[in-house]
Design goal:
mainly alpha; 50% helix; Rab-GAP_TBC_sf; GTPase activator activity
Length: 419
């Protein structure tokens, strides 16, 4: 484990420069009113800047990154949103048509303009981006009134709307809140506190020097972990890297969030020089937010994330240990990590079991990509050089018929009477 997650940073000479995901400079060289968005929809290449049922082959492909043209089809399949939408026809339309709770509607309205303000979808208050975000968040407060609205749901729903229609984005949000991260977005956030304790235990075991430094300067996990886990790193990492994290997270579950967090800790505080430069709480928190952008590019960063020696079994064992240490008199409901499903494979099996119990035969999700059509050979033009149109017509009719010639009008030619 120590070798898979060492405390020394990768030398900068070994970092790969994948500038293809950072946007084109030629798109941003024009004057302000005419600037174009990059391939992720951000104005001014903000996507690369730091903002304030998985079978083995599917798992491998998701780790390599889902193509942008297929995310709208893969994400609902991976998280089970497609089955939820099929089993609840018309539910989203009823929720959108219903009046929302005034308390939540006011809070949601204040947060709309804060979600990716430099993205072309969310620039205008009357645009389809902000209006779709309002509908999705309002629908969730009506779908789960006991949970209501959490501000961290805003950026999560916004990323979903960048790739999906509002109804599919709503069901994906439901699956993230109830299947991947249950207890995260409720009024007590009991699962966030539990995962914070689990993260510190994993940090003590895998990065003991970093853990000791955080204890010495008084940096607790609740000072940085909620922003990472609740928002699924949408506010902490470059947007291309966020998409790659989401591809893996929807495939493998919450353990990906812990792997990403441990990787960020190693990049920010992995060496003795980095820890010496952070003698206090503010300097340490600043170091976590000031990791060089070159080390956060998707290919380089995700290769380090996947090398973290943290399996689902290790995570579940640590969760059981932390649950046993929780005081019985703690306020709020007790965390229920057993309701969390570990990725697409577990979700698919759960939906299959529910379908069998309901008497319906579950469908196996599949994505069919039509191959491009073969180009047709160009049509050949007839060889008419040196031939008259009258000659072609006579040859097409065949040899002349024996007998009396046909009578024509006096001064009218054959072509005039024919056409």
């Amino acid at each position: 484990m120590a070798r898979a997650l060492g405390e020394e940073l990768v030398p900068s000479s070994e970092l790969q420069d994948d500038s293809s995901s950072l946007g084109s400079d030629s798109e941003l060289s024009g004057p302000g009113p005419y600037r174009q968005a990059d391939r992720y929809g951000f104005i001014g290449s903000s996507s690369a800047e730091l903002p304030g049922f998985a079978r083995p082959q599917v798992k491998i492909q998701c780790r390599k990154g889902i193509p942008s043209s297929l995310r709208a089809r893969c994400w609902p399949l991976l998280c089970g949103a497609q089955v939820c939408q099929k089993n609840s026809p018309g539910t989203y339309q009823e929720l959108v048509a219903s009046p929302g709770d005034p308390q939540w509607m006011e809070t949601i309205g204040r947060d709309l303009h804060r979600q990716f303000p430099l993205h072309e979808m969310f620039v205008s208050p009357q645009g389809h981006g902000q209006q779709g975000l309002l509908e999705v968040l309002k629908a969730y407060t009506l779908y789960r009134p006991e949970q209501g609205y959490c501000q961290a749901q805003g950026p999560v729903a916004a990323v979903l709307l960048m790739h999906l229609p509002p109804e599919e984005a709503f069901w994906c949000l439901v699956q993230i809140c109830e299947v991947y991260l249950p207890g995260y977005y409720g009024p007590h956030m009991e699962a966030v506190q539990l995962d914070a304790d689990v993260f510190m235990a994993l940090l003590r075991r895998l990065l003991p020097r970093v853990h000791k430094h955080l204890q010495q300067v008084g940096v607790g996990p609740l000072l940085y972990l909620p922003e990472w886990f609740l928002c699924l790193f949408t506010r902490s990492l470059p947007f291309p890297t966020v998409l790659r994290i989401w591809d893996t997270f929807l495939s493998e579950g919450a353990k990906v969030l812990f792997r990403v967090g441990l990787t960020l800790m190693r990049l920010a505080l992995g060496t003795a020089e980095q820890r010496a430069a952070c003698p206090g709480l503010l300097e340490t928190l600043g170091a976590l937010r000031a990791i060089p952008a070159g080390q956060l590019q998707e290919e380089t960063f995700m290769s380090q994330v996947h090398s973290v020696a943290l399996s689902e079994r290790d995570l579940q064992r640590e969760i059981r240990v932390q649950l046993a240490q929780l005081p019985k008199s703690s306020p709020g409901p007790a965390p229920q990590p057993q309701t969390r499903l570990s990725g697409a494979q577990a979700i698919f099996e759960s939906q299959q079991l529910a379908g069998v119990r309901g008497g319906t035969k579950p469908e196996i999700p599949r994505i069919v990509v039509q191959p491009p059509e073969e180009p047709r050979p160009p049509r050949r033009k007839p060889q008419t050089r040196g031939k008259t149109f009258h000659g072609l017509l006579t040859r097409a009719r065949g040899p002349p018929i024996e007998g009396a010639p046909r009578s024509h009008r006096g001064s009218t030619s054959f072509l005039d009477t024919r056409f």
